[in-house]
Amino acid sequence: MRDAVNRMLVGKPDSRRQLMTPALVIDLPSFRRNIATMADHCRRQGLALRPHAKTHKSVEVAKAQIEAGAVGICCAKLGEAEAMAAGGIGNILITSPVVTPLAIERLMTLNALIPDLHVVVDNPQNGAALAEAAAKAGHALKMLVDLDPGLHRTGIAPGADALALGRQLHEAPSLRLRGIQCYAGQVQHIKEFEARQEASLKAMAILGETRDAFSAAGLPVDIITGGGTGSFNIDPDARVLTELQAGSYIFMDKQYNDVKLGNAADFPFETSLFVQMTVISSNTPGLATTDAGFKAFSTDAEAPLLHAGAPEGAAYFFFGDEQGGIALPDGGNLAPGAVLTAFAPHCDPTVNLYDFYHVVEGDCLVAIWPIEGRGRSA
């Protein structure tokens, strides 16, 4: 990973405004409060917290979450898990199936390196392949059955198929069945609380029925894992989960800021992640050009919302691969060199565009954290 171009600014007064941009910025006080708020929530609910590292892809962030009480982390991909393990994280759940021969070989290597690795499976053939590989490696592999809550992205159908897969994994000498994963991603961004609550509790009911069927069949259900930031205050009421997989709460973004609690209040988490950009041209009245374009933000959602540095009524729009446009009210002007910040439209894919976080406290750059899992798509 290349060195951070802003390294020389760490600790210097007013260094936040001097950043070479575009730069991904974490507001440290807000970030710390978010970590504490979710950790406290899970303790009050009697839930373990296993935050999803697909959001941040950072060893430093994972360590901060674990220091606050998280039991470990989730990773969406094997490559993310390898990056986290290399940084000293020893309790990891891989939440997507690992299926190809080369990936299974890497999984066995990782399983021998860290003390507490879990992986999900939703297919009997994949379960058999993992059992064979674990037997050959001589190191038992901890497993969770991945249950489909209706999204149909991954997961085995509830009922007889899930129970049969659970029995298969439990009976394999080289595997250790620990329980069930069920993540209802389709409910997380439903804006209205009542509709989100109904959909999420429906998924939790499916999970609860499967848990009870496993238990009645003598299958282990030590770990029942799922949920997310959008359902963090809903799923605990079902009394099914043993651990919560929320991830985006540490940063927040426009998508989650549009989701409301039951009383129409905002979530109790602050936006702590921003993209900082610089005006590079402003020769046309009412228009400025910044150095942050398509390559600086995720593009699966709306254009970014401006946070600071522009007058009220200004709006960002994509202006090219490398440039963003700022439409200014009343023919206004922003001088070259002006510094602006924007909210990420969607934090996870925005993070994946950067090599480093620039951690700020007030006007000072206090640290630069590498994003070790960035680009680890396999």
Short description:
The protein is α/β, with parallel strands linked by helices and 378 residues long. Helix content is 29%, strand content 22%.
Question: Key features?
Answer:
378 residues; alpha/beta; Lyase, Ornithine Decarboxylase, Chain A, domain 1; TIM Barrel; 2 domains; 9-stranded mixed beta sheet; 29% helix; globular
Task: Spell out the blueprint of helices and strands.
Layout: E1 23-27, H1 28-45, E2 48-49, H2 59-67, E3 73-75, H3 78-86, E4 91-94, H4 101-113, E5 116-121, H5 124-137, E6 141-146, H6 160-171, E7 175-182, H7 193-216, E8 223-226, E9 243-244, H8 254-257, E10 273-281, E11 287-290, E12 306-308, E13 315-318, E14 324-327, E15 339-343, H9 347-351, E16 356-361, E17 364-370
Parallel strand pairs: 1-16, 2-9, 3-4, 4-5, 5-6, 6-7, 7-8, 8-9
Antiparallel strand pairs: 1-10, 10-11, 10-15, 11-14, 12-15, 13-14, 16-17
Helix pairs in contact: 3-4, 4-5
Q: Secondary-structure element sequence?
A: EHEHEHEHEHEHEHEEHEEEEEEHEE
CATH architectural type of the largest domain: Alpha-Beta Barrel
Give the total of beta strands.
Answer: 17
Tell me the number of helical segments per DSSP (H or I, 4 or more residues long): 9
Poorly predicted regions are none
Fourth-level CATH superfamily of the largest domain: Alanine racemase
> And the CATH topology of the largest domain?
TIM Barrel
Quick one: overall form?
globular
Radius of gyration: 22 Å
The major pleated sheet works out as: 9 strands, mixed
Q: State the name of the first-level CATH class of the largest domain.
A: Alpha Beta
Number of spatially distinct domains: 2
Helix content: 25-40%
**What structural category characterises the helix and strand content?**
alpha/beta
* Beta-strand residue fraction: 15-25%
Distance between the termini: 17 Å
Q: Give the rounded overall mean pLDDT.
A: 96
